Amino acid sequence: MSDAGTRATGDAPLLEVSSLVKTYRAPGVGPFARRNARPALAGVSLAIEKGRSFGIVGESGSGKSTLARIALALDSPDSGEVRLQGRSLFDLPRRQLRAARAHMQMVFQDPYGSLDPRQRVERIVAEPLHAQGGATGAERRARVRASLEAVGLQASDARKHPHEFSGGQRQRIAIARALITRPSLVIADEPVSALDVSVQAQVLNLMSDLEREAGVTFLLISHDLAVVAHICVTTAVLFRGGIVETGLTDALFANPAHPYTRELVDATPRLDRPARVASTPANSAPEAGAGCPYAPRCAFARPRCLEEAPVLEAKGGEGRKVACWYPLN
Amino acid sequence: MLLDVVELAIDLPAPDGWRRVVDRVSFGLDEGESLGVVGESGSGKTMTALAIMGLAPDGAEVKGSIRFEGRELVGLTEEAMGQLRGDRIAMVFQEPMTALNPLRGVGAQVAEPLMLHRGLAGHEARGRAAQLLERVGLAEPERAARSYPFMLSGGERQRAMIAMAIGCGPRLVIADEPTTALDVTVQARILALIDGLRSESGMGVLLVSHDLAVIAGHCDRVIVMYAGVIMEMGPVQAVMAEPRNPYTLALLEARPRPGAPRGSRLKTIPGAPELKSGPSAGCPFAGRCALTMDICWTTPPPEAAFGLNHVSRCHRASELGRAP
Fold it and tell me: Which pLDDT score, from 0 to 100, does residue B268 have?
């Protein structure tokens, strides 16, 4: 292990993952067995700088949620590293891992499923503190109050149960819980996609406020490009376990270089024009062999794409990288 | 007119009496037309769709009139309704995994309405089912027909459900959030498929969605519902470009817009919808609306018309109409 693996450094990225590989074993035999196990993550690297929220977009099965789980050390990779402020998560002794984890919290998609209905809000919000250990009762109550107020709820809400709140308020409770350890990074997996439009706006405004005022950086996982563009400075597009394109969010969506990014942008419904549909087959496309994983679906694929997989390479500055033999302009 | 809904009201039993979940809903739908219904949870959009299918929940009281091909559906026996359903009127649900039988092959399920409503023999129906699965764009229709629902992807299942819905050549298809559970690239393909089937067969489509952008891209007209009431209705272009109702405007302004600066303030709607026990005294949006006046609390706003078929229920509709 290198020195950086064990020591925190001032200029290290907030979160850095390098060459993550994760394959889930194909379950069972017989009709339920998958023909061949495709890695959920096939060598993903990215770095999140403090104050620059990072977006991950991609379709179901792209590895988005696996990446989140590994970044939080809820799951371990087959190979690769996760460094939080320069320290490798998987090398830390248990105690230090716990402390490191306090810098990172998670907000899930479903504000109904992620809150225990039998517990009072106070207990729910304080839960990460219990896991961390050490806080006294009075300290805990004060932190819960501060956390609830930070998300626009009342201190008196601590005594209520989740069912007494609306969907948007429940997602605020989930965010208050994430904030209680004063994390520098919050990983949010589809935090607004189960919410009504008007409630989405409240939660997105809250996320912007927290970024500005509480110094929280978000790793936002979403299928909704408009939501990602609203929060994230930088975005990575994930396809079948690999990053196909990454760069500044606005430039990425305004001018996609990878045909898959373009397919996503075109397919997104917009008020000012109908969605455009790619002319190639959708999910039913066969698995790619040695070539680019997107090639079987790609409208621009040429012979080389089917034979040789492109690697993620810098293109045109500003941190833009694309994994494509024939990037679009 | 293919479908003519007049003064539809739906009451559901509640612990303290009744709850009115749909109120004063009137609209029409022509052959070949696509009408979108948009609203947030509790708006009554799904309940309206279910009532047209004769699938309102047990104990619900449905009042008013729903005429389909000239025939009154309110008060129709379950048997008569069952003959229409899956034949002249079909429905596509959000989650095909729950609407399809997990224990039966997809082909057999697509074949079933053909045997039931068209009297096709088993082998004929199965042959026709394979054709239908091909028509909805499944890459390997034979394989899909032999598969169980869990063996298909979400998009493939939704295509199979659409095949089941269109089998008997329905004149009206009601699609309730048909793409909400799907990836955007799959969503775009499914919506394009529904568009294509509509223009081929001239069927009418009632598309229920929480997403104004989905409706903007795929419907001729739109109904905006709030708390069981139609707040605004009109041609999609007119409603999106010049909304005449504060609720429509609020929905349009709550979404992040492409190109806006990162983190710019989104408009929110204060408060939450109220539950009602009967017809509301005033406007259901009163109190949450920035334009609320005294009259909004006491008098339900009448329908005000603007241009061709564009109507809004708002006391201040004539002051509105600016672009969002």
Answer: 87
Interface contact B123, partner A, CB < 8 A:
no
Complex ipTM over 0.90: no
The packing angle between helices A197-213 and B246-254, to 10°, is 40
Interface contact flag, B256 A268, Cβ < 8 Å: no
The alpha carbon of residue B41 is apart from the nearest alpha carbon of chain A, in Å, by 7
3-state SS record for chain A: CCHHHCCCCCCCCCEEEEEEEECCCCCCCHHHCCCCCCCCEEEEEEEECCCCCEEEECCCCCCHHHHHHHHCCCCCCCEEEEEECCEEHHHCCHHHHHHHHCCEEEECCCCCCCCCCCCCHHHHHHHHHHHHCCCCHHHHHHHHHHHHHHCCCCHHHHHCCHHHCCHHHHHHHHHHHHHCCCCCEEEEECCCCCCCHHHHHHHHHHHHHHHHHCCCEEEEECCCHHHHHHHCCEEEEEECCEEEEEEEHHHHHHCCCCHHHHHHHHHCCECCECCCCCCCCCCCCCCCCCCCCCHHHCCCCCHHHHHCCCCCEECCCCCCEECCCCCCC
Q: Pick the residue of A265, A271, A297 with the most B CBs within 10 A to test the interface with B by mutation.
A: A271
Can you tell me which residue has the tokens 């809903």?
B25
CB-nearest to A223 from B138, B184, B214 is B184
Whether B255 and A226 lie within 8 Å, measured CB to CB: yes
Rounded to 5 degrees, what angle do the CA atoms B99, B102, B108 make? 85
> To the nearest whole angstrom, how far is the Cα of A94 from the nearest Cα of chain B?
37
Q: What residues 42-101 of chain B have any CB closer than 8 A to a CB of chain A?
A: none
3-state secondary structure of B143: helix
Q: Pick the residue from chain A with its C-alpha nearest to B270.
A: A198
β-pairing, A321-322 with B172-176? unpaired
Q: What pTM was estimated for this model as a whole?
A: 0.89
Q: What is the pLDDT of residues B46-77, one digit of tens each?
A: 999 999 999 999 999 999 999 999 999 999 99
CB atoms within 10 A of CB A69: 18
Chain B residues near residue A274 by CB distance under 8 angstroms: 216-218
CA B321 from centre of chain? 25
Write out chain A's pLDDT in tens, 329 residues: 444 444 445 678 999 999 999 998 755 555 545 555 678 999 999 999 999 999 999 988 899 989 999 998 889 999 999 999 898 888 888 888 888 888 888 888 776 777 888 999 999 999 888 877 767 888 889 989 988 988 888 889 999 999 888 777 888 899 999 989 889 999 999 888 878 888 888 889 989 999 998 899 999 999 899 999 999 999 999 999 999 999 999 999 999 999 999 999 999 998 877 777 776 655 444 555 789 999 998 999 999 999 999 999 999 889 999 999 999 97
Task: Report the C-alpha gap between B107 and B144 in whole angstroms.
Answer: 7
Block residue for tokens 């095909």: B96
Q: Which residue has the tokens 């201040």?
A: B316
User: How many whole angstroms from its chain centre is CA B255?
Assistant: 21
Task: Count CA within 13 A, CB hemisphere, residue A109.
Answer: 11
